Fold this sequence. Notes:
This protein is α/β, with parallel strands linked by helices. It has twelve helices and twelve strands. It has helices at residues 31-43, 56-59, 78-84, 92-101, 113-122, 137-144, 159-171, 197-205, 219-223, 253-270, 283-289, 324-327, and strands at residues 3-6, 9-12, 18-24, 48-53, 105-110, 127-129, 150-153, 177-182, 208-213, 229-235, 292-295, 310-313. The strands form three sheets. Strands 5-4-3-10-9-8-7-6 form an eight-stranded parallel sheet. The chain has a two-stranded antiparallel sheet with strand order 1-2. Helix 6 (137-144) runs parallel beside helix 7. The model has no long low-confidence stretch (mean pLDDT 96).
Amino acid sequence: MLRLRIGERWVGDGEPCFVIAEAGANHNRDLGMARELIAVAAEAKADAVKFQTYSAETLYSRQTPRFSYLAGLGDKSTWDLIKEIELPREWQAELAAEARRRGLIFLSTPFDHRAVDELDALGVPAFKIASFEIVDLPLIRDAATRGKPMILSTGLADYEDIEDALAACRAAGNEQAVLLQCASLYPAPPARINLRAMETMRRAFGTLVGLSDHTLGVHVAAAAPALGACVVEKHYTLSRALKGPDHPFAVEPGELAELVRQLREVEAALGDGRKAGPAPDELEMHQKARRSLVAARAIPKGARIERDMVTIKRPGHGIKPKYLDLVLGRTARADIEEDTVLTWELV
């Protein structure tokens, strides 16, 4: 069994799925909105709330072309758009305290070495590395040296990228990794999600796996535990009508709560894999709705039981249908009325 610990929470085999409510940049640089996002995550019963810590100066060249999915946000450059939605770093301690007050684990994705230092100083219990940063091996190595679980999104990555990132963790003495399957499209069509890649990565790399989901709705993410996800991350917002790059594909508060509910139901539905007959709460159905051998007509005492005297009907508390051939040719011990459920005492 594979498990690791994130704060006070065990994550992995045999444990409930670890749900990360990804607030990301959907705070719109409004501290009140950021605090409200934390409240929403707590009300939805997520395990963690996550923001993103970056600065335009260390994230993008000013010459970076515009992304097509940002076409509806005016004519500002990518650099300027990112600058507008940076998380003010002085908020981080306050947001971490607010998350703890509401029973949530506080996380934030670091996009530069300064962010790793700041988040480590705040005591975050894990580091989440974004898909685009999986090739920034110095950043991964720096985070891994802090000795905390590493959650690595693998959008756009091939096997070599993943192996390089895991090797960077191992070089720092850190074997605690979770690989998240991800499609780096915003929103991502379900056909691009490839949930089966989680099983592939677990077999290939021997790590825990999960899903970072950018699809619309919650149904795809809710299916992830059925294929082995122990972590599910989902972007959310207070309203998709808000202005900003990540609001349109995020789920709203009611949807986030519904996702957590569905994840827990899927986990419960997975069971233990054993087929051991009826459960205690199924016994009534077992007795009344299964089939038995039943008298097709009245059978007088002493009569030899022939095939036309027996049918197969519900309920199921009589002789099992598989014993039909053992019953045929026997003698009725008593008068048997039509539609009587046959038992071994009657023949």
